[in-house]
Amino acid sequence: MKFIGITGGVGAGKSAIIKFIGEHYKCRIYMADDVAHEVRKPGTECHKKLVDLLGEDVVLDSRKMAKVVFPDEKLLEKVNAIIHPAVEKYILDARDEAEKSGEYELFFLEAALLIEAGYKNILDELWYVYADRDVRIKRLMENRGYSREKAEGIMDTQLSDEVFRANADFIIDNSASLDESYETIKRRLEGYTWLE
Predict the structure, then answer these.
(1) Could you tell me the domains of the chain?
(2) pTM higher than 0.70, yes or no?
(3) Rounded-to-integer distance, Cα 120 and Cα 52, Å
């Protein structure tokens, strides 16, 4: 079973790519954001550590948590030092379970911060979903209702195209039609079972 990470900047179209893969290949797919919510649920070790650090009222309210944590760089580092290892353990356990089952040929992890979180060291391949900056801004304005300033602000905090490319084993140019991107994926995954 191959372990593949999918990353890319906001608005590049990672969700559409993941959806296509999930519908057509014998695979398991995990989204790092979903896993991060899962590991923070009450009763988990991660939740307990976060409560010890921030207090129950902050941890149970994600908006409040964002307001408290993001402006404070040192606090953000402490929170990440709790959440990131918990997410990685969850993912690796899920990968091992999927491999043992023998049902899956591919295991995908989608995350915007795969490179920053050091996943490159444990992946078999890292895929970068690329789209032109103007295309991404347009998508974010149309699909999420962002202003141009908000879209550009978020994009400017993410890794540059050069850094993504330098770390990627495979690049999907998702600037034009999704059909072109799907053909690129089909060529890359030739030899793996195609589900009708």
Answers:
(1) 1-26+105-190 (3.40.50.300), 39-93 (no CATH)
(2) yes
(3) 31
Between the CA of residue 18 and those of 12, 73, 81, 164, what are the distances in Å? 12, 32, 27, 18
Q: Please write the tens of the pLDDT for every residue from 122-135.
A: 999 999 999 999 99
User: Tokens 């993941």, residue?
Assistant: 18
Bridge partner residues of 125 (DSSP): 4
- For the segment 87-116, what is each residue's pLDDT rounded down to a tens digit? 999 999 999 999 999 999 999 999 988 998
- Which residue positions in the chain have pLDDT lower than 50? none
3-state secondary structure labels for all residues of the chain: CEEEEEECCCCCCHHHHHHHHHHHECEEEEEHHHHHHHHCCCCCHHHHHHHHHHCHHHHCCHHHHHHHHCCCHHHHHHHHHHHHHHHHHHHHHHHHHHHHHCCCCEEEEECCCCCCCCHHHCCCEEEEEECCHHHHHHHHHHHHCCCHHHHHHHHHHCCCHHHHHHHCCEEEECCCCHHHHHHHHHHHCCCCCECC
- Tally of CB atoms within 10 A around 103: 11
